[in-house]
Please model this.
Amino acid sequence: MNRSDAENFLYREAALLDHKRLDAWLDLFSDDALYWIPANQSDYDPREHVSFVYDNMTLLKERIGRLTGEYCHAQQPPSSTLHTISNVEVEPIGPGRVRVRSNAVIYEFRNNAQRRFYPLQTFPAFCTHELREEDGHWRITLKKVALLNADGEIFDLSFLL
Amino acid sequence: MNSQPKRFDYAELAKPDRTHARIYTDPDIFHEEMEKIFRRSWVYVAHESEIPNPGDYVTTYIGLIPVIVTRDEAGKIHVLVNRCMHRGATVCPYEKGEAKTFTCPYHGWEYALDGRLNAVGLPRGYNPGEIDKDKLGLREAAKVGSYRGIIFASLDEVPDISLEEKLGPAIPILDAYMDLSPTGEIEVGKSGVYKHAYRGNWKIQVEGSVEGYHPIFTHHSAFETIGRTMGINPKSSFTGSGKTGLLGRDLGHGNNILEVYNYTDEQIRQRYPQAYIDLLKDAHGEKRAMAALRTRFNLVIFPNLAILEYQFRVTRPVQVDLSEVRIYHTMLKGLPEEFSAINLRRVREHEFFYGPAAFGGPDDYVAFERIQQGLVADEEAPWVLLNRGYTTEQIDAEGCRYGDLTQETQQRAPYYEYRRLMARTLEAV
Model:
């Protein structure tokens, strides 16, 4: 996988998220994948430190079920997001395996007419994707989103990054 | 706040079974609370595990007042107002760290870990009599005390009760929390801090920390996931029949507890490996070990601390309708390596439910914000109702009011202390 391939992969992933095609987004992940958003610092050991999100695929599917279900009060109305991706670097880490680093700026908005003043939130992040080739497709084995404001005050992060 | 606040009748605004919307929305009441509750009664500031060594410090707030909690060279803890005595700048800009001194960035005034003024910038410019270093140390909390590492302070005047009186029946509950560690020690915040904010009054979080009525509604989605992935049904604890056997209790002086689970011996054996149960029995004796293993609870130490399963939750009032919440994750100290799974479960279970991206927390905070949005309709609907189970409330052997966990005894509890503290005149304190 070269940089151009990696960019195409990340753009496609972002488009699936931003257009809420979550089944297709989940298909990008391997069965043993991990979806990780560290808290406080990007390099804390997740066994010794709590994260914002530390999902295996079972929990990630539960998360999506919750966010799109009837009882997620924090997502009423649901968030819209826009991902902008840059600074893509590719590093081979084994046969059929690469690590892709990128910077992302994620904008999030909830058009809440009752609230009127719900802010547009901005989340800049250092992203790491580890990908593995399976049957001719690249699949995500790790998606790590290290927020620039991981140690800051956050009102609400109840949407997918 | 320059003018003397308006006089409010707090017995009318905070009745035993209801509170007036105004106490959540009126800026004058908010400022009176900062004076009478936060400056002049016991307030949680930090846990000793955050500042284990001489020179360690954390910065926090007592109400609106920025403070530094330090450990000096001799190991003594000080709670210092983070405000240079010269022109008022904060002398420490960091959340935590270690230091030998604190130096103001504006004119180089330097303070020791105990608050003493060591030196001022360009001292030769002062004439004799213009500066008295002995009187210009950082202002220090009038009273500092701790129980099992939990540090409380009162900033302005000595409170009218001792820390032991303040904690009272909460003491065995604090013991049970710490006794899950074989050495009886925990570490607070080292394993993570969630920093939330919500647009609502601070008391909504205080009430919400021990809310036994809302979970099956607000946390329906989280409970479904717990049921599917962990094979347990948390809903059974929150049926609200009045007969769950789980209680809400008023522990006095505003403190209160919601029992979340009261495990049977069989459930304890399912939840914990026998070797760990034995470890605790050897360390603490049968009685203390079983008390620690049996109970899971949400405890409020009024006004700003809540201790929940794996967390110290600290509420900081910012404005009448803006609050900051810090959720400090806690780990058990002194666990032998073969029991690391016990602490790992504390990480994963905590992170599943709490925090701004978790399965439970965001739904609580949206509820808190929607309360604040609705409460502005105070002419149309002035009262917040806290009367569920009021007429069937009972008194236990320790003199504590109690009721079934959904019946709002624990939400009514803070307002007994609230009325007591708010009724005091500032001059009389």
Observations:
- The interface with chain A takes residues 191-198, 218, 220-222, 224-225, 228-229, 324, 329, 340, 344, 347-348, 350-352, 355-359, 362-363, 365-367, 373 of chain B (CB under 8 Å).
- Residues 43-147 of chain B form a domain with the Rieske Iron-sulfur Protein fold (CATH 2.102.10.10).
- The CA atoms of residues 187 and 331 of chain B lie 5 Å apart.
